[in-house]
Amino acid sequence: MSHKKDASGLRNSVDSGDSKHVQTKIMSDIMRDDVETIKDPVNGYTNSQEFRGSITLFDAIPHQDSLDKLCAAKAIETDGRNVRLDLGKCIMCGRCQQAAPDIFLIGSIFETPVKVRQDLIRLSGKLDSQGQKPYEQMGKELKEKTSKILRRSLAIREVDAGSCNGCEVEITALNNAIYDIERFGVHFVASPRHADVLLVTGPASRNMEIALRRTFEAMPDPRIVVAVGACACSGGIFGDTYATTGGIDKVLPVDIYVPGCPPTPQAILYGLLLAVDRIEASKING
Predict the structure, then answer these.
(1) How far is it, in rounded angstroms, from Cα 197 to Cα 219?
(2) How far apart, in Å, are the Cα atoms of 50 and each of 53, 103, 184?
């Protein structure tokens, strides 16, 4: 009865000439969601304690020679004394830390994208210091470099080459009201002929191999390829099977590797910074 009464009251107010006031009230209630573009999502927001974004390796213990059997993605190799971790394969499942917390420490910051695949390999006992730049700072640097090198905005063509859509969710977040990547002069395009960067997710399934090559060939020079996520970097949890190629670099020349499962929007933005550096280097080298 209360619902009908409210509906009747609303109808009467509209009929009595208050329709403009009612519509304004409704729109105000809808739009009052307190969502706005924040200046620095990295420092303004903290990741959940459950978020797994990075792994630190400490000195290995001799009896932990069976750790490689725990890793579903086959990212861990051991010889009884040392541990070798491939961040390009790691899906951040956390099983390694549960089995050997004195060797593995999982953190909530993102792993830094790299230009060389080998740089994603970590060895126990060799700690890597990583300074995480604020999102806003990375965005300003990207905008400045893009204006200087391209004299226009950075155009990205994104291709899903068989992913689980986890990376797509993070890429989509770059365009939402929180991260708003277009304010830094970056936008996604529908045609590879308009693109500076090819952003690829997934392990490159056999069915997507031809489409991926054709997309790359349609791009104007310099053609920069960014592999986003563990699957794109190495095949990830899908591995190298009859249905997949085992990573984007088995199909195309990859310039930037962005590890993570999935990588955060901050990590993807960092990868785009490196991509612009690649564009600058290719222009200088002719």
Answers:
(1) 9
(2) 10, 19, 30
Quickly count: other Cβ atoms within 10 Å of residue 3's Cβ.
Answer: 7
Give pLDDT tens digits for 6-29. 444 444 444 445 555 545 554 445
Measured distance CA(201)–CA(211) in Å, rounded: 13
- CA-based nearest residue to 203, from 148, 246, 164: 246
143 burial class (0-12, 13-18, 19+ CB within 10 angstroms)?
A: middle
228 falls within a domain: yes
Average pLDDT over residues 146-161: 84
| pLDDT, position 47 | 62
Q: How far apart are CA 160 and CA 280, in angstroms?
A: 26
CATH number at residue 191: 3.40.50.12280
Q: Which residues contact residue 93 at a Cβ distance below 8 angstroms, ignoring those fewer than 6 apart?
A: 52, 72, 73
Let me know if residue 246 belongs to a domain: yes
Query: What is d(CA 215, CA 205) in angstroms, rounded to the nearest whole number?
Result: 15
Total domains in the chain come to 1
pLDDT tens, position by position, 65-118: 677 788 889 999 887 678 889 999 999 998 888 888 888 889 888 888 999 999
* Among the listed residues 118, 125, 121, 184, the one whose alpha carbon sits nearest the alpha carbon of residue 156: 184
Question: Range of 192's domain?
Answer: 135-284
- Per DSSP bridges, beta strands 121-123 and 83-86 are antiparallel
- The pTM of this model reads 0.79
* Other beta carbons within 10 Å of 182: 12
For residue 172, is it within any domain?
yes
Instruction: Specify the long-range contacts of residues 145-153, CB closer than 8 Å, at least 24 apart.
Output: 145/273, 145/276, 145/277, 145/280, 146/184, 146/185, 146/186, 146/276, 147/185, 149/276, 149/279, 149/280, 149/283, 150/196, 150/276, 150/279, 152/185, 153/185, 153/186, 153/187
| Alpha helix (H) residue ranges in 189-264 | 206-218, 230-234
